[in-house]
Structures are given as structure tokens and as C-alpha cells.
Predict the structure.
Amino acid sequence: MSTDRVSIGIIGGGLMGREMASAFARWCALEETGITPVLTAVADLSEPVLSWFDRIPSVQLKTRDYRELLASPNVDVVYVALPHHLHAAVYTEVLRAGKDLFAEKPFGIDLAAARQIVDTIRETGRFCRCSSEFPFLPGAQRALTMARDGALGRLLEVRSGFHHSSDLDPSKPANWKRLSRTCGDIGVMGDLGMHVLHLPLRLGWKPQSVYAQLQKGVPERPNPDGSTTACDTWDNAVLHTWTEARDQRVPMTLEMKRLAPGATNSWFFEVLGTDAGVRFNTADPKALWVFRRDKEQWWQRTDLGFGMPYKTITGGIFEPGFPDLMQQMWAAFLLERAGRLDGRFGCVTPDEALASHQVFEAALRSHAGATVEPVTRNQG
Ligand SMILES: NC(=O)c1ccc[n+]([C@@H]2O[C@H](COP(=O)([O-])OP(=O)(O)OC[C@H]3O[C@@H](n4cnc5c(N)ncnc54)[C@H](O)[C@@H]3O)[C@@H](O)[C@H]2O)c1
């Protein structure tokens, strides 16, 4: 089978940059895309990070200056995985350099930055999508289909969330994700919120009003040299929203937590209606829970196996995992870029990323706003 080659450059080879590199390295697992990503260039400020990429033979350029990567004719698509305060400047430079962009969430540190990125995409006409991988899981896809098909009856509630507990340990060192200056005033919403809003926004369920509860956790964390750094970001956010779905007003809760005791990386999506319901959680990655109502009421569990949207060599009975999701997401990105998505599930669009920032900004305003006191008995 002939396959088109797409040269990829990575800016930011940290946690996510390396995850993506490994997804390309086992691209042979994917069938039928007809497109092969080849990692040719990496830019990162850190020498140890750059040397990690010695193990990828196709990498011809390793540089501390990302502008050198942008000047390379041997890069078609740039994946950027940098701290949030750098998103707007680097994303817009990538687009202006004539490259297509796979952007990490949250797509700018705030709403103004997201607007700037979207404006530059329109101005340059480049192809751009934003990263959010969990909806590519078979359980998430089935939940999406059920929610879209309208078989659930009158919708009662939607719950979409992402919980982990990495920040519960107060001795965990400070890093850029715990500082508003580099992570953003939106804090955990910037970290986890795009994952939580991807399916609701794809279903057209944009929140129309938001009541936000935002919480902070450990106020300072240790540095390797024994000093401490003040950590000022929101760690947990619960957004009680109203949305409109099928001409009905539906309560939709969006939960983003870095302090969720016991959770390692639990992304979940749940839609309940009067006739049926669906529930999926990555804590149990093969299981789809479906509610049905006849004479009695049932929650049924189905083991979905490896039914990914983009076919791979992996047998249908096996379990999907995080690295598989990266490949699925890249398959969607590359096929959509080539105009060959053919109605299949695609990555977050720039407009969806912008819409997520509008929700986060409303959440900040809600949290800062006046609270309503319960009526107390007149003591007089
Ligand atoms: N999709 C997901 O599941 C997921 C998961 C984690 C993080 N992310 C996102 O990925 C992005 C990066 O997060 P991460 O966890 O990989 O961070 P990280 O801290 O592990 O990596 C960031 C890298 O950027 C490099 N860097 C910083 N400034 C630079 C510059 N000016 N030029 C070149 N390199 C520079 C750092 O040296 C570091 O190696 C963020 O936007 C984050 O929200 C996405």
C-alpha cells in the first residue's frame, strides 16, 4: 500500500512531546490510514530532553531554538507541547511560518490568547486542531453515538469530568502547572477542561450559564534546593451549567479535579435520560454501562474490547490504553488534514477550543461573583 509521508516537528519534548514521538515510532500498528508521520525535528531548551530523541533515527534536527525548526523545509506539521503562557506566541509563529499545527490544550493561557490563535488560523488558512484524546476510546465513542441518536428519551442530566490525585501529596515539587503565571488563572480548567468539554461541545451542548465552585489545594511546594514556591492555581473546579439539548434545558456538570482521592487518571462521561442512559469511565476502560427501562430498570455492563475508531493490528479482545489514544488522535488529525476523515470522529477544532475558554472565563467570573445567602429565621 502506498502511503503519504508527513514530516513532523515537535516543540517541547517533555512529557507529551515524548509520548507523541513514541506514537509515531509504532505507527505500523495502524492499518489503512495511508499516511505516515515521520518525526524529523525537535526543539526544547533542555539538553537531556534533546538527547532522549537520539533513540529516534528519523530525527535530523535537534535544537534549543524552535525558530530553527520553523525554518526547516523538512517539517510539514508542528506539534507544540509547551507551558501555557507560551502557547499564543509560539502557535501563531508556527502558523505564520507556513506550517500546520497540532496544538496542545488549553490552546492559550486565557480567552484573549485563544482568540489571538483563532484569528491567526483564519488569517493564514493553515490547518490546526487541538489535542484531546479520551473521546477516541470505544466506550466514549459509544456514549457519543447514544447521546447523539436521541434514544435516551427526555434528557435529565449530563456529567463530564476528569479526576486525578497527583496533587494530594504536599511534598510533590512545584512546577509550572501549579503557578497562575505559567498555567493560567484558569488553573485546573486549563489542565483538564478541554478533555471534559470535547464531547459536550461536539454534541452542540455548549453551556449557556455557569455556576462555578473553584478550590485551591497545597499553598506552597518544595523545590529541589530546599526552598519553597507559592502555588496559587485552582486545583479543583466543579461547574454546574445549564445547556440546551434537543430543545430541552439540561443540567450539565463539568468536573475537573487534581485533588480527587484515589483517582489516577479518570476521565468520564455520563448522560442520563428518561428511557435510557450511558456511562463510561477510563477507570474501567473496556466497560460501557447502559441503562435501560422496561418492566424493570437495568444497568448493563458490556466489555467493549479494542473497538477503536481507526483500525489497528491489535486484536479486538484486548484493552486500549493511553498510548493507543495518542495514535488514534494523530490518525484523526492527519486524515482530516488530508481531507479524508469521511465523517469519522475528529480532533478538537479551533472553534471548540475557543468555546472551552469562554466557559472557563465565565467560571472565573461566576466564582468571583456574589453568592446568595440562605434565608435565615428572623431572630427579632
Ligand atoms: N493531552 C494530554 O493528555 C496532555 C497531558 C499533559 C499535558 N498536556 C499539555 O501539553 C503541554 C505540555 O505539557 P507537558 O506535561 O508535556 O509539560 P512538560 O513540562 O513535561 O514539557 C514542556 C517542555 O517544554 C520545554 N520548553 C519550555 N520552554 C521552551 C521553549 N521556549 N522552547 C522550547 N522548549 C521549551 C521544556 O524544557 C519541557 O521539556 C501543555 O499544554 C499541557 O497542558 C496535555
